[in-house]
Specification:
7 helices, two-stranded antiparallel sheet, alpha/beta, single chain, 11 strands, Carbamate kinase, 238 residues
Length: 238
């Protein structure tokens, strides 16, 4: 069942844990290869894709328990972790025969290109894949916020948040087997039901830009392709 028109340009938000395989830590080569292969096939079909990656497979902020580390320092370390993930995913995509460009929100001379809206849009216009690391370039903001900003800046028509569960539920499906999945929600319903889809800043950017969000399980077979094609996959928020 089609519930949304197919997307031409999308922003995919990948958590760092999704690159770490079943353990959710470090790099898992099979997972990287699988994710890169799925993205490559979709790009071959003419879809333009930008990707924002998190860093949780290496560092989880203050919860990592690093001695003497305050929130600002923890966020700086996490931002560096996202650049590592962007580079690794970029190499995996190159191995699939794709042209890619890795951008960083802060200067990493000789390793990644500095982010600019014009450069990112030129990359996508060429049909290349833009991989964004470094979050927003500022502490105190999540990579969800970075994803919503990049999606708007790059004129994407859909933001896909890839998670470990198949959409948005009325309670935590990992602890409640009876949790009910929502097939579709409005922005107002998410607020009214107090559903934790994204942090407030990220969600507000999407709502104000009228940018649809689709929440999917990245490990589910064909979930990414189905979401981009407008099929009934995960939860669509619009």
């Amino acid at each position: 069942m089609t519930r949304n028109r197919p997307s031409r340009r999308v922003l995919l938000k990948l958590s760092g844990e999704s690159l770490g395989g079943s353990r959710g830590e470090g790099f898992d080569s099979d997972t990287l290869r699988k994710v890169a292969g799925e993205i490559s096939e979709i790009v071959a079909g003419g879809v333009q894709i930008g990707i924002v990656v998190g860093g949780g497979n290496f560092f989880r902020g203050l919860s990592s328990g690093l001695p003497g580390c305050d929130r600002i320092s923890a966020d700086h370390i996490g931002m560096l972790a996202t650049v590592m993930n962007a580079l690794a995913l970029g190499h995996a995509l190159t191995d699939q025969g794709r042209q890619i460009q890795v951008f960083s929100a802060f200067a990493v001379a000789g390793i990644a290109e500095p982010f600019s809206v014009d450069a990112a849009n030129r990359c996508l216009d060429r049909g290349d894949i833009a991989v964004f690391g470094g979050g927003t370039g500022n502490p105190l903001f999540t990579t969800d916020t970075a994803a919503s900003l990049r999606a708007v800046e790059c004129r994407c028509d859909l933001l896909i948040k890839a998670t470990r569960v198949d959409g948005v539920f009325d309670s935590d499906p990992e602890t409640n087997p009876s949790a009910r999945r929502f097939a579709a929600l409005t922005f107002n319903e998410v607020i009214e039901k107090r559903l934790a889809v994204m942090d407030t800043s990220a969600f507000s950017v999407c709502r104000d830009a009228d940018l649809p969000i689709c929440v999917i399980d990245i490990a589910r077979e064909a979930a990414l392709a189905n979401a981009i094609a407008g099929m009934d996959e995960g939860t669509l928020i619009s």
